[in-house]
Amino acid sequence: MSASVLSRSNTASGLPLLGLLFCVTVPDPSQSPGPGNLHGVGGHSLATQPRQRREPYMRNAAIRTGTAVLGTALMTAGMLVGAASGATAATTLVVATGGDDSAPGTLARPLKTIQRAVDLAKPGDTITVRGGTYALTDNITIAASGTASQPITLGAYSGERVVVDGERLPASHTPVGGSIPRAERGAIHQEASYWRISGLEIVNGPYGVYCDGCNNNVFARLVTHDNYESGFQLQGASANNQILDLDSYGNRDPRKNGESADGLAVKEGGGTGNIVRGARLWNNVDDGFDAWKFTSPITIENTVSYGNGFNRWNFPDFAGDGNGFKLGGGSPAPAVAHVLRNTAAFKNAAHGFTDNGNPGAIGINRSTAYGNAGTGFDFDVSGGRATLSADLSLADGRAVAPGSATVSTGNSWDLGGTWNASSVLSTAPAEITGGRRADGSLPTAPAFLVPRAGTNIGARF
């Protein structure tokens, strides 16, 4: 390896480091919708989004950590932490489509591939990617970890749109009934810890992001769409990961006729402390969110899941499930106490929320199901101990299917009366499906599925 390759730039290289990663612009879903987009998934552009910070009942300081506070932490992590305790000063590597992998990785002489930067990065370093489309012929493999005090940061350069395109990956075109080799599953394939990844758009991969055995990572403001399996999958022994402000849509799996491509899957593994916050999961062929065979509690907040489970791709022998939030599964399903707060599931092909056989003490609070073809809140597994509180069901095939041990308090079906579309201020999703706010959080939707009578139930956005 030449000395020029090893000459990596540092914070004195002239890069505008402060604010680097969290000045990213996530594309307006209305400009790149998934196939058959529900209601067009339109709305305001980021430039025209209301700027007021209307805080729903449960958006406290801890929840907002996912954006403003976390943004400061991420910007600091990749650049400043390395100076502590005598550690090597943090280094920044720049990648650009017109770069050269034999270059030193400076702003003036960037690297060409994200993989080269990943291979060079050490704990505390920052990889910043210039705008453009990075067409992969091999997946981006992240195998080396940062540390608790020196995480590695990967993100888009100062508001530029970075697209990671996996269309040319062989695994993206696995035939019907075929299997994808484990090492080839993600366009971004990670088996590492202490990374901070933000502001990337991942398309046409086998999976968009596939993270196996990953701990203490933060994934923020990613867009994963039109992949050939799940948009984002976390599995294996994975703990203390935060998935923040994810948009994942239009993902499908032709090799299984729609059986397993979810918007977001945290499945087939275990590990405490995993958090999903501010996600939108829509028009995926299987489920919006799937926790199949995950043995540890997951916390989901301020997240919406809609339009999932429809055969927009005309797959034969269609096998998509179509749940908004699938909260278990397996034979037998592990008993896991997942927690959902301020979430909404609407217009899905099956259930809004379902235990899917999980008998654990699932807690769902201040959440809304609307217009789902199946049951809004499906929690009737034998011995199930779910607690449903202050939830709202509107125009679902059935409002609730409780089990004998389900605890149900203060929900629309407990309050009595008739609950239908006319019971709320608006059923139009244009606001919640429009452009995100400048800080990456969900757009404000003060009328969407909010009861006219002021009843304090259901989600608020």
Structure description:
It is a single chain. This protein is mainly beta and 461 residues long. It has one domain: 3 Solenoid (Pectate Lyase C-like), CATH 2.160.20.10. The chain has four helices and 30 strands. The chain has a 20-stranded parallel β-sheet that branches. The longest helix is centred in the N-terminal third of the chain and has 17 residues. The radius of gyration is 22 Å and the shape is globular. The relative contact order is 0.11. The N terminus is likely disordered.
Topology:
Elements: H1 3-6, H2 61-77, E1 92-95, H3 114-120, E2 126-129, E3 132-135, E4 140-142, E5 152-156, E6 162-165, E7 186-190, E8 195-198, E9 200-203, E10 207-212, E11 218-220, E12 223-225, E13 232-237, E14 242-244, E15 247-249, E16 264-270, E17 274-277, E18 280-282, E19 289-290, E20 298-306, E21 325-326, E22 339-346, E23 353-354, E24 363-365, E25 368-370, E26 375-379, E27 387-389, E28 392-394, E29 398-402, E30 407-409, H4 412-415
Parallel strand pairs: 1-2, 2-5, 3-6, 4-7, 5-8, 6-9, 7-10, 8-11, 9-12, 10-13, 11-14, 12-15, 13-16, 14-17, 15-18, 16-19, 17-20, 18-20, 19-21, 20-22, 21-23, 22-24, 22-25, 23-26, 24-27, 25-28, 26-29, 27-30
Family: Belongs to the polysaccharide lyase 9 family.
Pfam families: DUF1565 (PF07602), Pel9A-like_beta_helix (PF22842)
GO molecular function, one term: metal ion binding
What class do helices, strands and sheet pairing give?
mainly beta
Name of the CATH superfamily = Single-stranded right-handed beta-helix, Pectin lyase-like
Oligomer: single chain
Largest sheet properties: 20 strands, parallel
Helix content: under 10%
CATH class type:
Mainly Beta
Radius of gyration: 22 Å
DSSP strand tally = 30
Mean pLDDT, to the nearest integer, reads 86
Count of helix runs: 4
Give the percentage of residues in beta strands.
25-35%
> How far apart are the termini?
52 Å
The CATH topology: Pectate Lyase C-like
Number of domains: 1
Silhouette = globular
Q: Just name the CATH architecture.
A: 3 Solenoid
| Parts with pLDDT < 50 across at least 5 consecutive residues | 1-86
